[in-house]
From TrEMBL:
Residues 20-80 form the HTH tetR-type domain. InterPro entries: DNA-bd_HTH_TetR-type_CS (IPR023772), Homeodomain-like_sf (IPR009057), HTH-type_TetR-like_transc_reg (IPR050109), HTH_TetR (IPR001647), Tet_transcr_reg_TetR-rel_C_sf (IPR036271), TetR_C_Proteobacteria (IPR039536). This is TetR family transcriptional regulator. It comes from Acetobacter senegalensis. The keyword Transcription applies. It comes from the Bacteria. Residues 43-62 bind DNA. SUPFAM superfamilies: Homeodomain-like, Tetracyclin repressor-like, C-terminal domain. Keywords: DNA-binding, Transcription, Transcription regulation. The keyword Transmembrane does not apply. GO terms for molecular function: DNA-binding transcription factor activity; transcription cis-regulatory region binding.
């Protein structure tokens, strides 16, 4: 049995009209400006110029900068999260599935866009809490719920022994951030980033199965 992604994790249906294309054009421009200047340093004028639209057109789509950033966060999560969670759909053995999910999540959390989003959201959360809420609902919350659903299926199959699948899912994703996330977010160097990623991936799976695995897990 496969685990279905929640509807909010799936890419939205695409309109073929000019309106959807223009909205995407603005979001692409917003990525450039937010990445270069952060949330506070970005201006709607700069985003309009980068997007190749007038400020009037920009405000037809987004009422203010916070509204635009929230839409950008949602779009980024919808675009990337299904790829990271795709291994759950393949019905592979437990260890192989966890390894594939860990590899996908390590890739996702170390992407430049992911690092940029994290920095902005942490910085702006006290002033714009709805930005953090939007990110949580469209990103981590969906990832945790999806993995928890898969874990629950493994419990029913006897391949994992877990009392709280949601907590276990959070633990697994936290293990996937070991060493990598903070160094990336703080722009600290790696001696061997590729080797560190592989170490984190395999250690996360090993530690998870050491705690929750059964004799059917391997």
């Amino acid at each position: 049995m496969s685990v279905s992604l929640p509807p909010s994790a799936m890419p939205p249906s695409q309109c073929s009209g000019e309106s959807e294309a223009k909205r995407q054009q603005i979001l692409d421009g917003a990525l450039v400006i937010f990445a270069a200047h952060g949330f506070e340093g970005a201006s709607m004028s700069a985003i309009a110029r980068e997007s190749g639209v007038s400020k009037g057109t920009l405000y037809n789509y987004f009422t203010n900068k916070a509204d635009l950033f929230a839409a950008f966060v949602e779009h980024n999560c919808r675009e990337k999260l299904p790829l990271a969670l795709a291994p759950i759909q393949l019905n592979e053995p437990v260890k192989e599935t966890l390894t594939a999910v860990a590899r996908a999540m390590v890739h996702l959390i170390t992407l430049p866009e992911s690092i940029m989003l994290y920095r902005i959201i942490v910085s702006e959360a006290p002033h714009f809490p709805h930005l953090a809420t939007s990110f949580w609902q469209h990103g981590p919350k969906i990832a945790i719920e999806t993995l928890a659903g898969w874990i629950q299926q493994q419990v029913e199959n006897g391949t994992l022994a877990v009392d709280d699948p949601t907590f276990a899912a959070e633990q697994f994703f936290t293990l996937c951030q070991t060493r990598l996330a903070h160094r990336k977010r703080f722009n600290m160097p790696f001696e061997n980033e590729s080797a560190d990623k592989e170490k984190v991936i395999h250690a996360a799976v090993h530690m998870f199965l050491a705690t929750y695995g059964t004799n059917k897990s391997h």
